[in-house]
C-alpha cells in the first residue's frame, strides 16, 4: 500500500480473516474412518462453497479477505488418494440420498428435501471436478488473481504458549508450517495465524525469524497490552511486527449459536443427521461394525429448540441470511473510523452454519459499497495506519475467558509433559547424529520421530479432551504418536530398527515428507 493511501487517524477498514484447519488424520488405510468423514463434510459444505463464493466476487484493486490454510489441511488435500476417495464418497452419498427420495417409510417432508440435498452434492462434485480435485492450487489461483490473501499457521496447530520454555519446538512447528504452506501454494505468507489465537509475550520474535509481518489476537491481547491499546488500529510490537485485535462484540453476532445469527430457528440444524435412521444395507460404507454410522450430512431439520425439530425450509433460510447480512452491515456502519478485524474459523461458514457462505457473500458485497468504509485483506489493513502505537500485547487466546485454561488444565496438562520430554529426546538425537541424515535408515528414522512428535502436538487433541465429545479419539491419537516416537528413539539408540517397520510408519501418515529438523540444531 502506498504511503499516500495511509491516514494518520486511520481509514474505516473491515478485514475478514477465515482460518481453515483440520487435524491431520487421513485414515485412508481404513475403509471407514471418522477422519475421512470430517474432511469430506467440510469440503462439501465449506471449502468448495467458499471457492465458488470468492470466485464470483468481482475483480478490484485489493483482496476481499484473507484466508489461512493450515499445513495439516493442505497435507490432507494433497494426499495422493484424496481426490479419488472424495469422488467415491460423493457417489456413495448420492446413492443414499437418492434412496431417501423414494423411501415410503420416511415422512413426505423428508422425501421432498432429499433432492434439494442431492443437488447441493452434485454442485460440489461439479466444482471439485472443475479444479481437477486440486484444492491448494485453486486457492492459490485466487490469491494470484488478487481476490484473496493467503497465510498459514504452525505445522500441526499446537497451543504455542504451552511451549514457552522450548524455543526449538516452537521454531520446529512454525518453520515446518510455513515451508509446507509454500510447497503447496508457492506463496511466502506475510501473516501468521496463531493457533487458537494464543499469544505469550515474545512470541513475535519467533515469527520474525520467518519473515512474518503481522498476526491476529483476541480482543484482550490489545486492550490489556502494555500500554493498553485500541482494537481499532494495529499495535506495533517491540520488534515491529503488527498485532491486530479481534472485534469480539461484532464477532459474537456471527459465531455464537446462542446470541448470534447461526442460532436463528430458520437455519439448518447442524447436530441432527438422518443417516442414523437409514438401514444398514442402504448405508453401505457409512455403516460402522458396531452399528453406528459415519456422519453423512442428511440434515433435513432446522434450529427450533425442540426435541422434535421442524423441517428445514431452504427459501426461508435464504431470506433470513439476507436479513442477518443487512443487520451486520448496519452494525459495521456504526463503527466509523478505524479497523474492524473479524477473524473466524472458516468451517463456521457452511459446515457449522450451513447458510454462512450465503451470508458472507452478501456482507462482502454490501460492505464494499459502504461510504467511508473499505474491505481489505489483513495485511493491507495492518499496514494502512500511519505510525501505529507501540506496546507489548497481553497473554491471551480466543478460548473461554480469553486465557489458557481451555487448553491447559487438569484434563490436558499430562500431554505437555510428554511432549516436552519427546522434544528433548529429539533434540538429543539431532545433536548426536545431525539433522540431515540423507536417505540413511537412521536419518529417515529421526525425521519420522519428528513427524510423530509434530502430529502428537496438535491443539485439537487437548481441545477434544476438554470439550468431551471426542475425547477418547484424541487420547488414542496422542498415545499412538507418542508410542511410535518412543519406539523409533529406542530403535535408533539400540541400532536395531528394521527397514520394514520404518517404511510402515512412514506410510501410515504420509504428512510433512520434507520435514526439517534444523530448529533442533540451533540455540535460541
Uncertain segments are: none
Distance between the termini: 34 Å
The number of distinct helices, counting runs of at least 4 residues, comes to 18
What Rg, in angstroms, do the CA atoms define? Answer: 23 Å
Outline of the structure:
This protein is α/β, with parallel strands linked by helices.
Describe this structure in words.
With 524 residues, the protein is α/β, with parallel strands linked by helices. It has two domains: 16-402, Glycoside hydrolase 38, N terminal domain (7-stranded beta/alpha barrel), CATH 3.20.110.10; 413-521, Up-down Bundle (immunoglobulin/albumin-binding domain-like). The protein is built from 18 helices and nine strands. Strands 1, 2, 3, 4, 5, 6, 7, 8 and 9 form a nine-stranded mixed sheet that branches. α1 links the parallel β1 and β2. The longest helix has 24 residues, at 471-494. It is globular.
SSE layout and pairings?
Blueprint: E1 12-20, H1 34-55, E2 65-69, H2 71-77, H3 82-101, H4 108-130, H5 135-144, E3 148-153, H6 167-185, E4 191-193, H7 203-208, E5 214-217, H8 219-223, E6 235-236, E7 242-245, H9 248-255, H10 280-283, H11 314-333, E8 338-345, H12 356-367, E9 373-375, H13 378-382, H14 413-433, H15 441-456, H16 460-467, H17 471-494, H18 499-508
Parallel strand pairs: 1-2, 1-8, 1-9, 2-3, 3-4, 4-5, 5-7
Antiparallel strand pairs: 6-7
Helix pairs in contact: 1-4, 1-5, 3-4, 11-12, 14-15, 14-17, 15-17, 15-18, 16-17
Question: What descriptive keywords fit this protein?
Answer:
7-stranded beta/alpha barrel, alpha/beta, 9 strands, immunoglobulin/albumin-binding domain-like, 524 residues, nine-stranded mixed β-sheet
Amino acid at each position: 500500500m502506498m504511503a499516500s493511501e495511509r491516514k494518520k487517524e486511520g481509514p474505516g477498514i473491515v478485514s475478514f480473516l477465515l482460518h481453515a484447519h483440520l487435524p491431520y488424520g487421513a485414515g485412508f488405510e481404513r475403509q471407514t474412518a471418522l477422519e475421512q468423514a470430517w474432511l469430506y463434510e467440510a469440503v462439501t459444505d465449506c471449502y468448495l462453497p467458499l471457492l465458488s463464493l470468492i470466485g464470483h466476487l468481482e475483480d478490484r484493486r485489493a483482496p476481499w479477505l484473507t484466508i489461512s490454510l493450515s499445513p495439516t489441511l493442505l497435507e490432507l488435500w494433497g494426499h495422493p488418494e484424496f481426490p479419488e476417495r472424495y469422488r467415491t464418497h460423493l457417489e456413495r452419498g448420492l446413492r443414499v440420498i437418492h434412496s431417501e427420495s423414494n423411501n415410503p417409510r420416511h415422512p413426505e417432508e423428508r422425501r421432498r428435501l432429499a433432492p434439494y440435498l442431492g443437488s447441493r452434492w452434485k454442485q460440489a462434485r461439479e466444482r471439485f471436478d472443475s479444479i481437477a480435485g486440486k484444492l491448494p492450487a485453486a486457492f492459490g489461483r485466487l490469491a494470484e488473481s488478487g481476490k484473496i490473501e493467503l497465510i498459514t499457521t504452525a505445522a500441526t496447530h499446537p497451543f504455542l504458549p504451552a511451549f514457552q520454555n522450548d524455543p526449538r519446538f516452537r521454531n520446529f512447528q512454525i518453520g515446518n508450517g510455513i515451508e509446507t504452506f509454500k510447497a503447496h501454494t508457492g506463496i511466502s505468507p506475510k501473516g501468521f495465524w496463531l493457533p487458537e489465537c494464543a499469544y505469550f509475550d515474545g512470541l513475535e520474535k519467533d515469527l520474525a525469524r520467518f519473515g512474518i509481518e503481522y498476526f491476529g489476537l483476541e480482543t484482550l491481547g490489545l486492550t490489556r497490552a502494555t500500554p493498553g491499546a485500541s482494537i481499532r488500529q494495529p499495535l506495533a510490537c517491540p520488534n515491529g511486527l503488527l498485532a491486530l485485535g479481534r472485534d469480539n462484540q461484532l464477532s459474537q453476532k456471527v459465531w455464537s449459536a446462542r446470541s448470534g445469527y447461526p442460532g436463528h430457528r430458520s437455519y439448518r440444524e447442524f447436530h441432527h443427521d438422518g443417516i442414523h435412521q437409514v438401514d444398514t444395507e442402504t448405508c453401505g460404507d457409512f455403516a460402522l461394525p458396531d452399528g453406528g454410522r459415519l456422519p453423512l450430512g442428511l440434515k433435513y431439520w432446522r434450529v427450533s429448540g425442540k426435541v422434535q425439530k421442524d423441517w428445514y425450509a431452504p427459501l426461508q433460510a435464504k431470506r433470513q441470511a439476507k436479513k442477518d447480512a443487512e443487520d451486520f452491515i448496519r452494525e459495521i456502519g456504526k463503527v466509523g473510523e478505524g479497523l474492524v478485524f473479524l477473524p473466524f474459523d472458516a468451517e463456521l461458514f457452511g459446515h457449522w452454519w450451513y447458510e454462512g457462505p450465503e451470508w458472507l457473500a452478501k456482507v462482502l458485497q454490501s460492505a464494499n459499497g459502504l461510504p467511508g468504509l473499505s474491505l481489505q485483506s489483513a495485511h493491507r489493513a495492518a499496514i494502512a495506519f500511519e505510525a501505529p502505537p507501540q506496546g507489548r500485547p497481553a497473554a491471551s487466546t480466543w478460548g473461554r475467558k480469553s486465557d489458557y485454561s481451555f487448553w491447559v488444565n487438569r484434563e490436558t496438562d499430562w500431554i505437555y509433559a510428554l511432549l516436552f520430554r519427546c522434544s528433548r529426546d529429539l533434540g538429543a538425537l539431532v545433536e548426536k547424529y545431525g539433522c540431515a541424515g540423507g536417505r540413511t535408515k537412521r536419518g529417515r528414522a529421526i525425521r519420522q520421530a519428528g513427524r510423530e512428535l509434530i502430529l502428537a502436538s496438535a491443539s485439537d487433541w487437548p481441545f477434544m479432551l476438554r470439550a468431551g465429545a471426542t475425547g477418547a479419539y484424541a487420547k488414542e491419537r496422542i498415545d499412538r504418536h507418542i508410542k511410535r516416537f518412543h519406539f523409533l528413539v529406542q530403535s535408533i539408540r539400540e541400532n536395531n530398527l528394521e527397514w520394514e517397520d520404518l517404511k510402515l510408519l512412514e506410510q501410515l501418515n504420509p504428512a510433512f515428507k520434507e520435514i526439517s529438523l534444523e530448529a533442533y540444531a540451533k540455540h535460541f
